Design the sequence.
């Protein structure tokens, strides 16, 4: 049997095949998967319902759990914790744990860096440094001390999930499967700028909630903020969303970074309502978080109040989402994989 770097990232079929190829009963695959992903053991030696000789052979051939991942922990005053991971491939990427009472959320990365180049985002300014495997995505949950507290996951960290579609959806299967972490699909949200071919695939499979980066309802202006608009027009995305509607219990939302003096006018509010008419959705307004890689302004309270009043006028449901982790560089748009 060929040696693997880590069991984390393998699905139940792959773990079963691994057992069979080593000459063992494949039925143990379900138990091993549950020990790794649901019970979240730090070592296979903690397994107590599988013969020890099988466990020892698996460790000898594949190594133990989390053997080559390192991270640094940066706690924030608001209770959030930023994690900076470094893997054996030399990639740096981040996740953030956020404690909101009953909601214990982990924001994970799907790539090291990002090639989308969104103008207000620090991650986009560092460029693309490689896709993360399903294992590297799932490890962000299993490695941290708060792992057993987490009851929600958002794929909103570094990277564009649909630019790494196969590995991301494999990770989602592990997060949600009964043999995996067993999180409900409605407790996971994937955020995307809207890569059209990935979006269509996702809407046909619907593995979790969907959040689409909007930031402007006007294609020309959106293209200035999100270069991906040139090849993936927001109008085409809306057409796909109407063709494949998202039903309960899953939810569709649009993210809207509020940039002072840029995208908070009466015309913007009216155009949002017109663009998204016919969809069941919610707008998450995210006041821009300052960083050194972009020269925008945070919106004033007056701008936000006026904009939300206009959204109410046009029947748009909205929430202002206050980002956590600002003082440790972990708020929305600030992740850059640095100390």
Sequence:
């Amino acid at each position: 049997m060929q040696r693997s770097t880590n069991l984390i990232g393998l699905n139940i079929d792959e773990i079963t095949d691994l057992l069979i190829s080593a000459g063992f009963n494949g039925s143990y695959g379900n138990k091993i998967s549950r020990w790794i992903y649901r019970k979240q053991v730090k070592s296979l030696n903690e397994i107590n319902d599988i013969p020890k000789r099988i466990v020892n052979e698996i460790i000898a051939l594949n190594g133990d759990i989390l053997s080559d991942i390192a991270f640094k922990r940066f706690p924030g005053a608001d209770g959030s914790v930023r994690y900076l991971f470094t893997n054996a491939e030399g990639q740096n990427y981040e996740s953030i744990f956020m404690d909101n009472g009953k909601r214990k959320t982990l924001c994970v990365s799907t790539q090291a860096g990002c090639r989308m180049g969104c103008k207000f985002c620090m991650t986009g300014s560092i460029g693309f440094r490689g896709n993360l495997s399903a294992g590297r995505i799932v490890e962000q949950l299993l490695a941290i001390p708060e792992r057993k507290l987490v009851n929600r996951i958002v794929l909103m960290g570094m990277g564009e999930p649909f630019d790494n579609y196969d590995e991301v959806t494999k990770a989602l299967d592990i997060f949600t499967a009964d043999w995996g972490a067993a999180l409900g699909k409605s407790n996971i949200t994937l955020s995307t700028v809207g890569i059209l071919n990935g979006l269509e695939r996702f809407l046909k499979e619907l593995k979790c909630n969907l959040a689409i980066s909007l930031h402007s309802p006007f294609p020309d202006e959106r293209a200035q903020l999100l270069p991906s608009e040139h090849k993936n027009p927001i109008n085409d995305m809306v057409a796909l969303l109407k063709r494949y509607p998202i039903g309960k219990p899953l939810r569709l939302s649009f993210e809207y970074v509020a940039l002072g003096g840029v995208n908070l006018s009466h015309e913007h509010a009216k155009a949002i309502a017109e663009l998204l008419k016919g969809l069941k959705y919610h707008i998450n307004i995210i006041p821009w978080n300052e960083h050194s890689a972009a020269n925008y302004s945070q919106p004033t309270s007056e701008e936000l109040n006026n904009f939300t009043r206009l959204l109410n006028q046009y029947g748009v449901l909205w929430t202002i989402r206050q980002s956590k982790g600002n003082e440790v560089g972990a708020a929305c748009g600030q992740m850059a994989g640095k100390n």
